Amino acid sequence: MKSSDFPPRRTDNWKAVYEGAISDSEYSVSLNRIADARNAIFDRAEDILTHSSSDERRALTHALRTLRLLEESAIRENKAA
């Protein structure tokens, strides 16, 4: 079965999950939302290993870095509480 036999996935799903994770205000970011966003990004990255635009690869890399920073901040805040 060729990859073209499968229905296309929504390419913007990772963006919606990511934007939801980073939209929490005042460092109330849920570690679960960060994990969900990271998993959505990894799923999309896996989909585009063979064919994608370099712009989307850059966007995925930027999103992962941002999530890592948010996660580190949330962990520090949870330890301080």
Topology:
Layout: H1 13-22, H2 31-47, H3 54-80
Largest sheet: none
Catalogue the unreliable spans. Answer: 1-8
Percent range for helical residues? 55-70%
Radius of gyration over C-alpha positions, nearest whole angstrom: 15 Å
Mean pLDDT: 77
Q: Please count the helical segments.
A: 3
Helix/strand/pairing category: mainly alpha
Distance N terminus to C terminus?
52 Å
Number of strands: 0
Shape label: elongated
How much of the residues is beta strand, in percent? under 5%
Give the SSE string.
HHH
Structure description:
Helix 2 (31-47) runs antiparallel to helix 3. The protein has helices at 13-22, 31-47, 54-80. The chain has a domain at 29-81. The protein is an all-alpha fold and 81 residues long. The chain is elongated, with a radius of gyration of 15 Å.
Which tags fit this structure?
mainly alpha; 81 residues
